[in-house]
């Protein structure tokens, strides 16, 4: 007497977002490069990193992995209708320059490039003197 129970809930169809202009954040660390593409309000549209494109370990931090991450993220953003963006670069990693070059080679209008790397204006307090 087992009857199949049907769910009365309907799944809502995923609405395809249309984003004409946005922001691209490139965070280049020594271990990875993360590319996040947002709309103008800062809501994430798509993202990619060295790990999501298939690299593991130390290969995630290579410029090649950064280039592939940018290409994957920008391709997804272009499918949503993005054609111009502001670029924000953060961090000292090796994928920083490669990511920017890959972004320039993509067919996307870049409105500005800003470096938002945090700079310490005196830094942390140094450790106390060593007593022997």
Strand share of the residues?
25-35%
The succession of helices and strands, N to C, reads EEEHEHE
Q: Mean pLDDT, rounded to whole units?
A: 91
CATH-defined superfamily:
Ribosomal protein S11/S14
Distance between the termini: 83 Å
**The biggest beta sheet, please?**
5 strands, mixed
Helical content stands at 10-25%
Please tell me what the overall shape is.
extended
* Radius of gyration from the alpha-carbon trace, in angstroms: 21 Å
Low-confidence stretches: none
Describe the structure.
The radius of gyration is 21 Å and the shape is extended. The protein has helices spanning 63-79, 95-105, and strands at 21-28, 33-39, 44-49, 84-90, 109-115. It is of the alpha/beta class. A 5-stranded mixed β-sheet has the order 3-2-1-4-5, with helices on one face. It contains 2 helices and 5 strands. It has a single domain, classed as 2-Layer Sandwich (Nucleotidyltransferase, domain 5). The mean pLDDT is 91. Helix content is 21%, strand content 27%.
SSE map:
Blueprint: E1 21-28, E2 33-39, E3 44-49, H1 63-79, E4 84-90, H2 95-105, E5 109-115
């Amino acid at each position: 007497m087992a009857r199949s129970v049907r769910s009365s809930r309907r799944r809502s169809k995923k609405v395809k977002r249309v984003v004409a202009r946005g922001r691209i954040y490139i965070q280049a660390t020594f271990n990875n490069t993360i590319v996040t593409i947002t709309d103008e309000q800062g809501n994430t549209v798509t993202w990619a990193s060295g790990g999501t494109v298939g690299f593991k370990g130390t290969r995630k931090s290579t410029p090649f992995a950064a280039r592939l991450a940018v290409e994957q993220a920008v391709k997804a953003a272009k499918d949503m209708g993005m054609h111009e963006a502001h670029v924000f670069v953060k961090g000292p990693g090796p994928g920083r320059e490669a990511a920017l070059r890959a972004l320039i080679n993509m067919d996307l209008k870049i409105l500005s490039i800003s470096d938002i790397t945090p700079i310490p204006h005196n830094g942390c307090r140094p450790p106390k003197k060593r007593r022997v």
